[in-house]
Amino acid sequence: MTTPDQSQPASKQTFPHLLKRSTLFISPYRVERLFSKNDIPPNAFYTRLGQAAEVIFGQACKDLKFPVKTLSTAMMLVQHYCLFNGNNVLSTNLEITSTCLLIASKIEDTPKKSKDIIACLYHGFKYSPTKLEEIRIHVLHLERAVLETLGFDFRQTSPQYYVIKISKDLRLKKEVAKLAWDISIDAFSSLVYLYIPTHTVALASIVLAAKLSKDESIFPLNSESFESTRYKTNLALLEFLELYLNRPSNILRLVADEKYKDVYYDIFVPFKDDISRAIENFQISHRVDKNGRSSELAIRSSKLSNDGAVRYVLGWD
Q1: Record: fold of 159-286
Q2: Contact criterion met (CB below 8 Å) for 279 and 231
Q3: For residue 18, what pLDDT band results from cuts at 50, 70 and 90?
Q4: CATH top class, domain 18-155
């Protein structure tokens, strides 16, 4: 990367250039490195995700009437931006959430005006019109930073579509399908959607819902028929189980559910042991690289320059 040469005339100055290769998924090892590099306390990070999910699936869903695909996309944007920018961001959680909702509404063709989103999310603060306009301008500037962090990569899709589709194919009971839907939304308080394809996460949410409701009608289940390997499905299940067992919160729909909040723990603990053993056995037998690899480059640093060119390349492997 080169920095501007101040000795040259303005018309001939060179600016930073960068080629960023965007990969659709990242490894847990890469996430641990980002936590360390960006000085992100994991507990504080997951609390931040939970707060964003509460706003997006609560207030934004009720007042802005966004469809679930827009809300899901917004949460994925929040996850990505907060993970790659850490505690160095100069924006509040609500400003980041507002920006991600604005971008998601454009991606999913459900556009809303920025002032409407700001007015909704900041309704309880009783800010003056001048203050709200300042926030709106900041959100519009933040939009570029979110898009650059994302690498202009919009390939991720909402998992709820797959929950409905797979539930119909398996002829699930309505109660089990509803529970799987709630689990797939709770999963936004974790990073499973950055590791695993959404259709596999949807399948894992159905498996967990069936286990919790003791519905054995779908077992044995051939995950390959849903374009998901058993190993990837188990990884998604492990992320779910760690979320509910290690980071329980009333923000999570399953934890707040009167029917399951007192029984899920006793069911999930032995199930987690079984899943962990299955994953470990697979990694040993197939010599899976636990450390992961990443060829991803850092985005252009605004500390050097906001000018120059950045090319974004989508990685398909």
Answers
A1: Cyclin A; domain 1 (1.10.472)
A2: yes
A3: low
A4: mainly alpha
